[in-house]
TrEMBL record:
Keywords: Bacterial flagellum, Cell projection, Cilium, Flagellum, Periplasm, Signal. The gene is flgI. This is Flagellar P-ring protein. InterPro entries: Flag_FlgI (IPR001782). HAMAP family: FlgI. One of its GO terms (cellular component) is outer membrane-bounded periplasmic space.
């Protein structure tokens, strides 16, 4: 049978059609359910404690300024059998600092597990580098001790000070101790005994929740999952092993949906726009009026052999730039994010000007997205 041959022009036409279809229907990225949702109840808990850091190189708290440091030091020494209350005036060390100790107790942490802790100066200490945290109990929200922290700090900062200058890189008053706390009490939670579970979406969206429920029902059976609200997907295991079911559910690929949102941070000039942002037909003309005022005062000297005094004569120079070379741009139809960026770049619009333009387009009703200004 003879092999069919295609004309080069026909091949080029097929490639153009394929490229056009690919541009109209782009393949959206799929993510795993474990990357966009959490199991309700599987969460970390915050712990906080108070302690003392010792061994500092004359960079700790001033005991006469930080009263709580002095009282904590006296109490610690008395618990060790050292009586210092009769000689309080002689406590003039700067090698001790009072600190707050914080940590996150992860889910399913058992007694004896090790967790990281963060140590932050509480008084007027200038540098915690090289210090050692003395035993500090870490409390939960219920006031119970869940872990005990102790160890050497690592700040990762550099601080040097001389008579007339100082250099500081990083934050020397905050340190971290890797595996610096030992868990003493576990938070009770039995995942293997659950018959009903809830998946909590990190970014609530009703379409995404519905897609998650459909994917789970298609993979593990009908009526296993259903979306109850934009954030929650209910799992009725029906006697299935929770661990085995979650292991299969977490790896299911999902195409998440996202609302059209434009986030503006005016303090930094940052603009972030989602892929679903659309703009209706609108004309944009952007220009700035710049007024520059320059003061160059001059000193007028009196004539020779007179009793006059030198006087300062003001000289003011005012320049006005209204930037007439700005262009008028028209965005037609349902403009996508790529078209919007291309048109605004053609107008020479910077991030600061883009913020004002987006706010004006939203006020005109042409921005089909939620505008959030921070």
């Amino acid at each position: 049978m003879p092999t069919p041959r295609f004309h080069p022009a026909a091949c080029l036409l097929l490639l153009l059609i394929a490229a056009t279809l690919g541009a109209v229907h782009p393949a959206r990225a799929q993510v795993r359910i474990k990357d966009i949702a959490d199991v309700e109840g599987v969460r970390s808990n915050q712990l906080v404690g108070y302690g003392l850091v010792v061994g500092l190189n004359n960079t700790g708290d001033r005991l006469y300024n930080a009263v709580f440091t002095r009282q904590s030091l006296i109490g610690m020494l008395e618990r060790m059998g050292v009586n210092t209350r009769d000689q309080i005036a002689l406590l003039n060390t700067r090698d001790v600092a009072a600190v707050m100790v914080t940590a996150d107790l992860p889910a399913f942490a058992r007694s004896g597990s090790r967790i990281d802790v963060t140590v932050s100066a509480l008084g007027d200490a200038t540098d915690l580098t090289g210090g050692t945290l003395v035993v500090a109990p870490l409390l939960g929200a219920d006031g119970e001790v869940y872990a005990v922290a102790q160890g050497e700090l690592a700040t990762g900062a550099i601080a040097a000070r001389g008579a007339a200058a100082s250099v500081t890189r990083g934050v020397p008053t905050v340190g971290r101790i890797s595996n610096g706390a030992t868990v003493e009490r576990a938070v009770p939670f039995r995942l293997d005994h659950a018959s009903v579970l809830h998946l909590d979406l990190r970014n609530p969206d009703l379409t995404t929740a519905h897609r998650i429920a459909e994917a789970i029902n298609h993979a593990l059976g009908d009526h296993l999952a259903r979306a109850t609200d934009p954030r929650t997907v209910l799992l009725d295991l029906g006697g299935r092993d929770p661990i085995d079911a979650l292991a299969h559910i977490e790896d299911l690929p999902i195409e998440p949906d996202s609302p059209a949102i434009v986030v503006i941070d005016e303090s930094t000039g940052t603009v972030v726009m989602g892929a679903n942002v659309r703009i209706s037909t609108v004309a944009i003309a952007q220009g700035n009026l710049t007024i520059r005022v320059t003061e160059t005062p001059e000193v007028a000297m009196p004539a020779p052999f007179t009793n006059g005094q030198p006087t300062v004569v003001p000289r003011t120079n005012i320049q006005i730039d209204d930037q007439h070379n700005r262009k008028l741009g028209i965005l037609r139809g349902s403009v996508t994010l790529r078209d919007l960026v291309a048109n605004l770049n053609a107008l020479g619009v910077g991030p600061r000007d883009l913020i004002s333009i987006l706010q004006a387009v939203k006020a005109a009703g042409a921005l089909q997205a939620d505008l959030k200004v921070r």
